[in-house]
Amino acid sequence: MKAGLGVNGEYIYQQEKHLTVLKTSLFFANDGFIVYDCKGHLLFRVDSYGRDKGQLVLMDAHGRCLLTVRRKRPSLHQRWEGFAGERSEGQKPIFSVKRSSIIGRCGMVVEVLNNPGEEYQIEGSFGQRNCRIMNAGKESMAEIRRKVDASRNVVLGRDVFSLSLRPGFDGAFAMGLVLVIDQINGDDYVQDYKAEVFPTTDD
């Protein structure tokens, strides 16, 4: 059984994989991401400077476009769509992501458009770096967690986090979902981060 949408076979691993994701801007959502594998090699990068704010491109270490995510407008549920490679006019999306509800903080639903039976749920708090991508059987396929510096046993800031992949789950697809989650929850993230770094005090 296929464990997840295959965006690029190069990033489907036979063993569980732990990636390190660095968010390159703390106060303006989605300015960029850099992703490293467990050996410290650059795997993916996203640089949204000068790009349409409603569209992001996931690239490999050499700048090759792997996946484009684009906000669909209008959409009450903040629906986003994913396209293989660099999106061209008239190209059909390969997956879509939307909020489960238009009210308050909630989970998200991921539909794989060329396979109606393949669906995923995203639950948890991205702002707290604690969420999971689960398949229709409620099995965890990928997890986002706070990054821990094992040498010092210190939890790092939320600009650096871990993305763990279950064997067979495409890392490019998972990172594309991270981009969408960050876009949808970006305001929550910025407010939570500012509150953590600059707490208010009563006189």
Write a concise keyword list for the protein shown above.
mainly beta, Porin, 1 helix, 37% strand, disordered C terminus, Tubby-like_C
Short précis:
By secondary structure, the chain is mainly beta.
Describe what you observe in this structure:
The protein has one helix at residues 171-197; strands at 17-23, 32-36, 42-47, 55-60, 65-71, 80-84, 95-99, 108-112, 119-125, 130-135, 140-146, 148-149, 154-155, 160-165. It has 203 residues and is mostly beta strands. The chain has one domain: Porin. The strands form 2 sheets. Strands 1-2-3-4-5-6-7-8-9-10-11-14 form a 12-stranded antiparallel β-barrel. Strands 12-13 form a two-stranded antiparallel ribbon. The longest helix is centred in the C-terminal third of the chain and has 27 residues, at 171-197. The chain is globular and about 50 Å long. The N and C termini lie far apart (60 Å). Mean pLDDT is 81; it is low at 187-203.
